[in-house]
Amino acid sequence: MKSYDPRMHSAEHILNQTMVRMFGCERSFSSHIEARKSKCDYRFDRPLTQAEEMELTNQVNRIIRQNEPVTEHFIPLQEAAAQFNLSRLPEGAGEEIRIVSVGSYDKCPCIGPHVTQTWEIGEFRLVSTGFEDGILRIRFKLGDPE
Ligand SMILES: [Zn+2]
Fold first, then answer.
1. pTM of the model
2. Distance from the CA of 49 to the center of ligand 1, in angstroms?
3. Which of 12, 65, 73, 146 has its CA 20 to 30 A from that of 122?
C-alpha cells in the first residue's frame, strides 16, 4: 500500500462526490494520487465542456472553503457492503470498515490518510480533462492552504 498525500487524497474524496452529484456517474474507478499532481478516472460517455469544468472546480473549492470537518467512524463489514461499493478497498480490510466523512457532503469507505478540516487542502486547480474509450480523466493540482 503506497502512502497517499493527505491533502490530495482528501481532495479526491470531494472531487468524487462532486462528480456523482453533477453527473450521476460512479466515483473514480482508478486514481493516481501524488503530492504534486493527481489524476482520477471515471467511466463516462463524453468529454466535459469548459462550463462543466468550471462548475466542477468551483463546487470542489466551495466545499474546501466551507472548511468541513473530515471525520471517521467504523461500521460492521456487512452494513458497509449494503451501503457502499467496497471494490476499491484492499483485501482483508477487516470486519469493521472505516467510513470517512467530509462534513455532510461525502461519506465513503477508505483506509487512506486525510486532512482534519477541508481548508488544509488548499485551492483545487483543474489541470485538464480528457475523454477516451469511455473514460474521463481529470488531472488536478492544489494551491497552498490560505
Ligand atoms: Zn480516503
1. 0.94
2. 28
3. 73
Q: Are 45 and 134 in contact (CB under 8 A)?
A: yes
Residues 77-102 pLDDT 10s: 999 999 998 888 877 778 899 999 99
Q: In angstroms, what is the span from residue 102 Cα to ligand 1's centroid?
A: 10
Q: What is the pLDDT of residues 105-120, one digit of tens each?
A: 999 999 899 999 999 9
Return the CATH class of domain 6-142: alpha beta
Distance between Cα 48 and ligand 1 center (Å):
25
Q: Which letter, b or e, does each residue of 92-106 get, where b requires 16 or more Cβ atoms within 10 Å of its Cβ?
A: eeeeebbbbbbbebb
* Cβ–Cβ under 8 Å, residues 37 and 84: no
Question: Which protein residues have their CB within 5 A of the ion that is ligand 1?
Answer: 110, 112
The domain ranges of the chain are 6-142
> In this structure, how many other beta carbons lie within 10 angstroms of the beta carbon of residue 3?
9
